[in-house]
Design a protein that fits this description.
Length: 132
């Protein structure tokens, strides 16, 4: 794991250096600062919404770990990745943020099914008194 983080940090540094050679140091510094500010803004705005949604789902009793990981935590992950300086992490953060805003929020058919694959339904039988 530490080796993977080391390689990722080296890739980020090389990317920033190459970008700095292409467009200049001021533009790279501005990109790093603007994406960090954007990451902080996203974390401040979306974390509260995610925690409220999580608390509501816990209160109602329909907490789904799959929905939490696939949709609800995406802005938090995106904000954290935007704070990390680098081109690769920023590109991945924008991909994750785009996936959050462009994905439908309605539950899928798998989430509507119970654990055994059955759909729980309540029904009442009404007898017609006119036929008797």
């Amino acid at each position: 794991m530490p080796f993977i983080l080391f390689v990722l940090a080296c890739v980020e540094i090389v990317g920033l250096v190459k970008l700095g050679q292409a467009v200049g140091g001021g533009a790279v510094l501005a990109e790093v600062l603007l994406t960090a500010v954007l990451g902080i803004v996203i974390l401040r705005l979306m974390t509260r919404s995610v925690l409220q949604h999580l608390a509501l789902n816990v209160f109602v009793g329909r907490l789904s770990l799959r929905a939490l990981m696939q949709h609800d935590l995406l802005p938090v992950v995106s904000g954290i990745l935007l704070i990390i300086p680098g081109i690769v992490s920023d590109a991945f953060a924008l991909y994750v943020l785009g996936r959050y805003f462009l994905s439908p929020t309605a539950p899928s058919a798998e989430e509507k099914l119970g654990e055994d694959g059955a759909i729980d339904v309540e029904y009442k039988v009404h007898e017609d008194d006119a036929r008797q």
